[in-house]
Amino acid sequence: MTSERTLSSAPGRRSGVAVWKQIADTLSTEIRDRAFTDTGRLPSENELATRFGVNRHTLRQAVAALQSDGLVRIEPGRGMFIQHELLDYVLSRRTRFTENLLRQGLLPSKLLLTAREMPAPERAAHELKLTKGAKVLMVEMLDEANGQPIGLGTAYYPALRFAGLLDMLNTGMRTTEILRHFGVQDYVRAESRITTQMPSEETARLLKQPVTRPLLCVECLDADMEGSPIKYGETVFCGDRVQLVVNSGADEIAGAE
Asked: Whole-model pTM?
């Protein structure tokens, strides 16, 4: 194994700076440049030690520095994961997914997982003021920021009022555009309830996180400008990627869903 003295004087190394610090600086830059976005984790200790030509003790010093800076987290038996900066998700009278991400320089996207008509679950029927047995349109979507999952949302719409909504979703139309088609030019968040919960194995798989990490859960009700409920739903967010910000100030300008 090449010695640290040799490494510190090799091309690309900074003389007088500890090798572990140079490795930490290199990896820190790569993390901030999103070099590990595809996997969400660093290569293994052996791979990194080979890449930098150092022993594992030196490498662990570098990784410890990254962990101390909040850039990575170490999960025993699983590996070293990138600890992304927390995304601020604003909850207000006009909560809009797209606007929340764009204002932070992030690219929003939604992946449609499930869309079907079904009898309204008891909770959804109560919130949407539907009679027992009424039909709703259930939509499940994976919310992404720069291609990485941040949340999983399930929404229920009154089927009678929004007949055809599912077909429009399948064409790629955004929720706000679809609602305008049905005469809902604007809508507001009537209520948000925030809790925490543990993910199921399937939810953890979709959000690419361990089942041992809690989720932030937002139960919400949206209403049109006449006060009639149009959507009831629940979104679970990755607790290590998202922080919820409650905005009780003036109304925001409505944006795209």
From this structure: 0.69
Structural contact between residues 42 and 48, judged by C-beta atoms closer than 8 angstroms: yes
Residue type, 223: A
To 10 degrees, the CA torsion angle through 168, 193, 107, 94?
Answer: 70
CA distance 157 to 110: 18
Q: Which two tokens stand for residue 84?
A: 């992304």
Mean pLDDT across 212-220 = 93
pLDDT score for 208: 84
Rounded Cα distance, 178 and 33, in Å: 36
Instruction: List residues bridging with 134 in a β-sheet.
Output: none
Neighbours of 46 (CB within 10 A): 10
**What type of residue sits at position 229?**
P
Rounded Cα distance, 136 and 128, in Å: 9
Quickly state the pLDDT bin for 82 (edges 50, 70, 90).
confident
Q: What share of the chain is helix, strand, coil (3-state, %, to 5)?
A: 30, 35, 40
For the stretch 94-117, pLDDT in tens is 888 888 889 888 889 999 999 999
Give the count of beta carbons closer than 10 Å to the beta carbon of residue 107. Answer: 12
Q: What is the pLDDT of residues 17-46, one digit of tens each?
A: 899 999 999 998 888 777 887 777 899 999
Q: Which residues pair with 148 in a beta bridge?
A: 145
60 burial via Cβ count (<10 Å: 0-12, 13-18, 19+):
middle
- The 10 Å Cβ neighbour count of residue 89 is 23
User: 198: which DSSP letter?
Assistant: P
The one-character DSSP state at 174 is -
